[in-house]
Design brief:
Helices cover 88% and strands 0% of the residues. The chain has one helix at residues 12-100.
Length: 101
């Protein structure tokens, strides 16, 4: 039997294999591009979520400051009210004492 000599020409099965490899590579490139678009969209979504979280955090801080100020004002009003009640109680006691003497 004589050894087979390669003529350098591609056989039909080699051409099919090469074509399948090219198709597979193209599919991989397309899938890669699709994944890159998805990643870009997710990054944009993440950035928007971060900005919303920062905005919410800033709003929370402003509300905490306002709440603190309202609490201080409420304590001041309560002390003033308590002082007025005590003053009126003293006046009433003095009036009762003056009436009974």
């Amino acid at each position: 039997m004589a050894p087979s000599v390669s003529t350098g020409a591609a056989t039909p099965s080699r051409r099919k294999g090469a074509a399948a490899g090219v198709e597979e590579a193209e599919l991989l490139r397309q899938r890669n591009a699709e994944l890159e678009r998805e990643v870009a969209a997710l990054r944009a979504e993440l950035g928007a979520a971060r900005r919303r979280a920062e905005t919410a955090e800033e709003a929370e801080e402003r509300l905490c400051v306002q709440l603190g100020e309202a609490e201080v004002e409420a304590v001041e009003i309560a002390r003033a009210y308590q002082g007025r009640v005590e003053e009126l109680a003293r006046e009433l006691a003095a009036a009762r004492a003056a009436r009974s003497s």
